[in-house]
Specification:
This protein is α/β, with parallel strands linked by helices. The chain has nine helices and 13 strands. Strands 3, 4, 5, 6, 7, 8, 11, 12 and 13 form a nine-stranded mixed β-sheet that branches. It has a two-stranded antiparallel sheet with strand order 1-2. It has a two-stranded parallel ribbon with strand order 9-10.
């Protein structure tokens, strides 16, 4: 089942760049650009708007993308059913999660799962938080390793709702910083109000991050308009920017080390998110899926 066209479109949509998509696909940039132009000619309509900043799908492109995800899922299901008929494979399970936290959880549970269910295929799809929820909803992924500020959606079943505090990190050079070198990981932290940082530049999460909208709302409620130096969906990149003295950021507590030149604060009021495992509401789990959920909950 050849779904090369669909893989190309998915790579373009997720990277928003012909150059980056070509790198992911291991083909040349001109080859991918020519492929897109040829496809648009065959369909008689534009699928993507190219610009220096990023590639944006047109409404027709969004339709093609949705069909591409459906075809990818059909391929996975078809191959799993054929393998099952041949006696090679009993089941196929797909998990989606971030390249950082999600991939780490997957790596921790993979061996234990395969030891109990060696004939069940387990696949991991890297995707940032918002897209992971979409993939679970449209059936591309069976489960998502996610973060969310809302664990009461009628669309999803939440197997874990572990609250994680988000901290305000300041570089050690900031006027409000303090010596955090002797802090223990679970120590009580000094508090800070965002209103004290009106003149401080911020490194912000991108809209793909689970707490982005909550953070924007909080700034809006306080009538603050922070100077945004940089945005990223990678918390490690943002944390590195703070360590380098570029500005403040709001990030998970797990990133903090007393060896780093940063000062962590608890926000007032407290700001948090939930680490969670999700699947589509109403899904009936197989024994293998139940065991997989148990492993993911234990290792998230």
């Amino acid at each position: 089942m050849d779904i090369t066209d669909q893989k190309y479109m998915i790579a373009l949509a997720e990277t928003k760049s012909i150059t980056q998509a070509a790198k992911r696909l291991n083909i040349s940039q001109p080859a991918l650009s020519n492929w897109l132009s040829t496809l648009e000619y065959q369909l008689g309509t534009q699928l993507a708007i190219r610009s220096k900043k990023q590639l944006v799908l047109t409404p027709a492109g969004q339709i093609y993308l949705e069909g591409s995800y459906r075809m990818l899922q059909i391929k996975h299901q078809t191959y799993a059913e054929i393998a099952n008929t041949a006696g090679f494979l009993k089941e196929s399970i797909t998990i989606s999660g971030t390249p950082n936290g999600g991939a780490e959880v997957f790596s921790r549970i993979f061996s234990a799962f395969r030891e109990r269910y060696p004939s069940v295929s387990l696949q991991f799809l890297e995707s940032y938080n918002k897209r992971t929820f979409d993939m679970v909803l449209d059936g591309t992924a069976d489960f998502g390793i996610c973060s969310s500020q809302d664990v009461n959606s009628p669309l999803f079943e939440y197997f874990l709702a572990d609250e994680k505090e988000l901290l305000l990190y300041l570089p050690s050079s900031h006027r409000l910083s303090y010596d955090a070198s002797k802090l223990k990981y679970d120590a009580e932290l000094p508090t800070i109000r965002l209103s004290q940082l009106a003149d401080t530049p911020f490194i912000m999460p991108s809209a793909d991050m689970s707490y982005y909208s909550g953070l924007v709302q909080m700034f809006h409620h306080l009538s603050l308009h922070p100077k945004v130096l940089f945005q990223s969906a990678n918390v490690k990149v943002i944390y590195q920017m703070v360590k380098s003295g570029n500005g403040a950021a709001i990030l998970p507590r797990r990133l903090f080390s007393p060896l780093d030149p940063v000062s962590p604060f608890s926000l007032k009021p407290r700001f948090s998110t939930f680490s969670t495992i999700v699947c589509k509401k109403g899904r009936q789990l197989t024994p293998a899926q139940e065991y997989l959920v148990q492993l993911m909950v234990q290792n998230t």
